[in-house]
Amino acid sequence: MNGLMQDWPLLCHRIIDHAAINHGNRKVISRSVEGPIVETTYAEIRARALKVAQRLTRDGVRPGDRVATLAWNTGRHLEAWYGILGCGAVYHTLNPRLYPEQIAYIANHAEDRVMMADISFVPLLESLAPKLPTVERTILLTDKANMPKTSLKNAVAYEEWIGEVDGDFRWAGLDENSAAGMCYTSGTTGNPKGVLYSHRSNVLHALGGNSAEMLGLNSHSVMMPVVPMFHANGWSIPFTAPMAGATLVMPGPKMDGASIFEMLDRYQVTATAGVPTVWFMLLAYLEESGKKLEHLERVIVGGSACPRAMTKTFQEKYGVEVSHAWGMTEMSPLGSTCAITPEVAHLSGDERLDLQEKQGRAPFLVEMKITDDAGKEIPWDGKTFGRLKVRGPAIARSYYKAEGGNVLDDEGYFDTNDVATIDEHGYMRITDRSKDVIKSGGEWISSIDLENLAVGHPSVAEAAVIGVPHPKWDERPLLVVVAKPGQQPDKAEILKFMEGKIAKWWMPDDIAFVKEIPHTATGKIQKTTLREQFRGYRLPTAD
Amino acid sequence: MNGLMQDWPLLCHRIIDHAAINHGNRKVISRSVEGPIVETTYAEIRARALKVAQRLTRDGVRPGDRVATLAWNTGRHLEAWYGILGCGAVYHTLNPRLYPEQIAYIANHAEDRVMMADISFVPLLESLAPKLPTVERTILLTDKANMPKTSLKNAVAYEEWIGEVDGDFRWAGLDENSAAGMCYTSGTTGNPKGVLYSHRSNVLHALGGNSAEMLGLNSHSVMMPVVPMFHANGWSIPFTAPMAGATLVMPGPKMDGASIFEMLDRYQVTATAGVPTVWFMLLAYLEESGKKLEHLERVIVGGSACPRAMTKTFQEKYGVEVSHAWGMTEMSPLGSTCAITPEVAHLSGDERLDLQEKQGRAPFLVEMKITDDAGKEIPWDGKTFGRLKVRGPAIARSYYKAEGGNVLDDEGYFDTNDVATIDEHGYMRITDRSKDVIKSGGEWISSIDLENLAVGHPSVAEAAVIGVPHPKWDERPLLVVVAKPGQQPDKAEILKFMEGKIAKWWMPDDIAFVKEIPHTATGKIQKTTLREQFRGYRLPTAD
After folding, report:
1. 8 Å CB contact of B396 and A5
2. Strand order in the sheet with B90-93
3. Confidence class of residue A521 from pLDDT cuts 50, 70 and 90?
4. Which among B15, B339, B408 has the least Cβ separation from residue A364?
5. ipTM of this model?
């Protein structure tokens, strides 16, 4: 027997409808790509998104078609986002920071029909044009006055393009499982893979994302997403902020410390979100300028682990609470935040910072488990670590065009390829990538923990740990070290430094000194290359 | 093209799973029907709910079957609630305050197979037993020691009943549109009608209900629902509290001021919810005892309009913020709360109280409109009033067994049968019931506004306003008055008192003095009877 409640599909454009009706005058403030700071409202964003939807439809874009955006965070990008999904098409955010060949690969794989891009990306797009056969036209997110000369196919200024329609348009009537958005994972190995969000998954994710211990936005919040909309579904802020009626401050293309500070200060931002790199730049700017964060209450740090010193500085020096968060493109993306529950509310000082190094707890709509290699669940004791797997309505069940094949286990959980512990209060901590963990005699050793410890030695510039085959233990850790200029540390000295700070059986079996450690384009250690480099390496303990 | 996200149906039992896993030790504290205050946790609630589900299944209860509860707010009732829905059956909360014949009508209409009841309702159930042929057995929510002697069919003590199973049970795998719960509307006319909630509607409603400007619960909240679980889906608190990991304090059968105060004070309740009647009792107790509300931050007042004086007293004397809320059984039930947005945050004193008399704003997942009788939308100007209609995924599309026929308009909106204004910021104010509004020359006059004004006259004990046929204006207002004992006000005196306080054309055309005004069982003015009483009444202005 079914319930007798209304059929009201979860469609993303209902979010901007809600914002326009109930928070219509709330502002969306952007640093434009052209330069000036411009202000609009949710009511206007919706009105113009309707024009985008109407114009795309008139241009022959059909439900399910992919429309790419290559743009910074601005009000126009937000209009494009809702306009694309609102005509039934799929917003496909491209990351301009990828190598041009990767961008071309991704746009071709997605078969993007239309490109909506900031004027600053015209040279990039012109160089890519011959490699983008599916792209029929380019809409440049600007007006006539700022329209650059370009050889791009059917290029038009956004303002002129939407100026030709009247906005008298009804959002597409869609099944809630229809695709709404798309974002590719960069991936350290293999080709990028596309994650295809549905209207349902985005709406559910935003509802969960606005719960008190996740983003918890309300109509008094002033939120600045420094994280770009092309990074992991924009951390869902394009949905959570209008759903809550929060004021949006969009930093546009300028991510340097002074520019970020200017927006935070001038618009009295209360909450902001981004990766550690931008906060390093902000903190450096504050340090050198002596400025204070008068209005900011909370900074959400994700994308990679938030360094303890950063948390300490934000909280103790600037009075800004840090919310350590974790997620994945495949998770829409919010997976956890390190909110303080009653069980740990008594912690202070270093103990509180210890806790805040964890990636935190799962909201409703995210189920977590940690398993051994055989898929057997392991205990939540804060010590035992295993493969982190997740399940929920806003988590991928497969990639676009079935790249990577089946990615779910028998119980429907997605393998994050992270290795983590979860403590008795549900706080999860990422300890490694699963392909990097060292498997010694059936027990796992975290390469990241060893690296973090080794770089604490005064003569070590950089450290990487990989597993090397061992006749008895399967694998044992090899520590690869780059010494600081002018330093010549020896093995015994480094090992002595590490001793007693980790379990005895975690101690590296050997240390190799190298001139440099290979890195990916985004600065991560390329362990595949490193393992290749040390193939056949014989540990002294192997005899 | 569909998205590629996981199939994770929105099932209510996932909420108690989440609470047990992520907030397992958070307490549920109840004043038991037997007397003592008892404590349990979400982990235990879930473990025992699994036993309820297992035992119901063993007893032959099948998905879709209705299982009635007749019980106060306690942890056991919460276990029963999740156990029933978790085996695929439908929790059907019966209101013990209805007339026995109404209870029998409702249980028969729903065809309840099992009755789970507090021991205090044994006499009522015994008297009703011959009229409840569908009920196969009664589970009394108590243990062996407190089990009363009873003639009820197959009666058993709950603790013994679940004691016979081991809890090794998997929740039913269900489609999210499956029925999960049922609640009948009392209705001032006609038979009670059943609202049938789905798993999906309850989960979505709870997600929306926990947004910051609705209940906004978190793991630090200590929530006491004084509103009974049998009143309009328990205002969804049985879902929102465990979803947020809030501590639950359950008042059991004692709703008097002293008992409510004891729970609020002893368990440091931060938020509570209920109808004005219970707050009158609490405020009277505080007044006479001189006690203070040390921990309470917020009281959510709904069910009927929150009197201005109550808001003022809570806020100004006790420092407790009042959230005026509105909803309906048919809306799961939350429809609006009067949260303060930035646009009105500058209001203070009387202006703030004016605002707080409004029922407030719609959350995401509730769409509102106001229309004239022809269904045409009228403006949101805070003055024009019309029929209030609502749409959303947790709003009824029809009643059980199609009672009342089609209840949606062409656009899928449900007619609340309330008449309301909505202002430019989205604040809605109920001005009347649509059947009570007086339609004078195409314009509407609020009977409630006239009544509220008339009772302000020092000689008037009670007032009711009904529309009486008029040859020129269709209808004109007749004010029906019960004078205070010993007082003999005359018409002119009362009319003079009202003059200038309302629009001239709102002034009643006549006043009739009566000894008493008819009331429903729940204390509301029975306007149908009153209209019957004044049928054929000829207004002096009709000549």
Report:
1. yes
2. B156-157, B137-140, B114-117, B66-70, B90-93, B179-185, B193-198
3. low
4. B15
5. 0.93
